[in-house]
Every structure is written in C-alpha cells, then in structure tokens.
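retry 2 of 3: previous attempt timed out while embedding fe (ii) ion. Reduced batch size to 1 and resubmitted. Inputs unchanged:
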Amino acid sequence: MMVSTDVDELEIGMYVEIPGSWLSHGFVRKRFVITSERQIERIRQSGFTRVLRRETGESDRTVEGAGTPEEEGAPPAPVVDPELFDLLHDRHLPLARKTGLVHHFCEKIVSAVFERPSPETIDEARRGLHDVVGVILQEEEIMKCLIRITSHDHDTCTHSVNVGFYGIALARAVYRGSDAHDLEELGAAFFLHDLGKVRIDQAILNKPGKLTEEEMEEIRKHPGHGFRLLHDMKQLSEECRIIVLQHHERSDGSGYPRGLREGEIHSYGRICSVADVFDALTSDRPYRKALSPFDALRLMRGEMNHHFQKDIFEKFVLLLA
Ligand SMILES: [Fe+2]
Ligand SMILES: [Fe+2]
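retry 2 succeeded.
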C-alpha cells in the first residue's frame, strides 16, 4: 500500500510515486526506487513537499527487476503508449521537446520490459524500439542531445536507456557509410543488453555497498540469463544474442562469461561494452559518487584501455567532445 510521506523523510531504498503526470514534473518514471541522495534533492527541487511511498516492510523486489508496481486490479500500462507514439512522429515539435519525448518513450518501454518480461511485452517493446531508433537515426540533432541528457541515477532501467542512446550513437559512427547492419534491431538490443538482470536477486542489484565475490558470481550470470530468456521467448535476434552475451567481454580476455579476446568479440559487443562501462562510471552508486564524463573517459583510456578496442573507444570520445 502507498502512503503519503514528507519529502524530508525519504531515504535511499524507498519505493516512491511522484504525483501528477511526467509533463508537469519532468520525472520520466512516476514510480521508482530511490537509489541516491541526488534523486531526493530533485524531488525537493521540483517543488514537492509530500510524495507517495510504499509502506515499510512491503517488498521492493518487483520494482526494478521482475515484478509490477501496478495497483491491484489495474490493467498494465501499454508497452508502447499510442499518444506518445503519435507525438514522436510529429515533424513540427521543437527539438528539445522531441528529445525529451524520445527519452520518455524509451524509458516507458524499458520499464515495461523489466516489470513484465513476457514474450508479448518483449515483442511489442522491440517493435516500439525499432520505431524510436528510426526516429533517432533520422535526426542527428536528437541523437546529439540524447547523449547529453542521460540521467545519472543508478538503476537498471535508467542504465539500459542510457546504454541504448550511447550504443546507437556509437554504432552509427562506427558503421557510417555501411548498410550491412540493421541499426534498428541493433539499437533495440542495446536497450535490452541487461535484460538477464530480471533473474538476479534485487537485494544484490540494489545492495548499498560493494559486492562480495559470491554476489559478483551471481551478477556474472546475467548475460546467460538474458540469452536464455530471449531464446525461450523466441525473441532472440542475432543482434540481441551477441550483445546480451558479449557486452562484458574485454579485449584482453579478462571479461565474462567466456573470457573472449578482442578478435573473438563481435564489434556489436565491443560497442556495447564501451557504452556500458562509460554509463556505469558516470552514474551515482550508493557507495561512490559518479565520475564526470571527463574523468570516466580518462580512466577508460588509462588503466582500463586494454578492455576496449582502441578505434571504437576513440570514436566514442569524439561523440562526447
Ligand atoms: Fe551487463
Ligand atoms: Fe549494463
């Protein structure tokens, strides 16, 4: 049950609902788990003195990974919001408005997938993502804006959306001039790269501290979980297969799950790993502050440089310049 709570009483780990529509408050998701002090500050700065909060003792495990925040008896929200879909194709929308809309559209789709990972949801999500990736690819200015408005909160949905935008922009730069790649399916696959996390215990994913070796072992299973989930649901395109399985492989063979080396990792996997690491480094964690984009790139170029393919990484740096 949701109860009204003073904003001053909010804490990391609470599941909250922001009143009103996203158009009025600017939060892309109405309901979410608070994962950083910055989010509490944003709620306060948006003018709220009270929000709704799930009562203490009720499980939050469904929120980020595998369950539903819908009220009992309420029909699930559509994966692709028809109103947003129409707006997305309005050629007269100003750039800033359209960029916000694309961002919101993708957040809604990815949230739906993580909350209800069924074959129907994933099928509809992939089609919706194909469409929005088409819009992004048509309008380069939107793509440039999208990679600058990524949010730095750490949760799987926000991270998946950020990696989606970085991945699309980087794939576009890497494959410019080639028509050998299905960029729409590739884009959808970037958004779904961490889908396997729906099968990881939320207590591990949201742990407010460093993970033990055993917990890391659990986390390392998510590429395999994602592969099996998409395979069993008959939603496994070649792009999804490669990206889900290879986004944690590293050029020097230190990655997982297979310890592949650069020549064995598909360029889709190498693109996704750059996007994935950059977003992880620039996001707040309960136990450490986000790095600035400059410091993240410096770390990736320095002590992590043997993890990435050099020319792909350099293209990523140019994108953010
Ligand atoms: Fe991952
Ligand atoms: Fe990831």
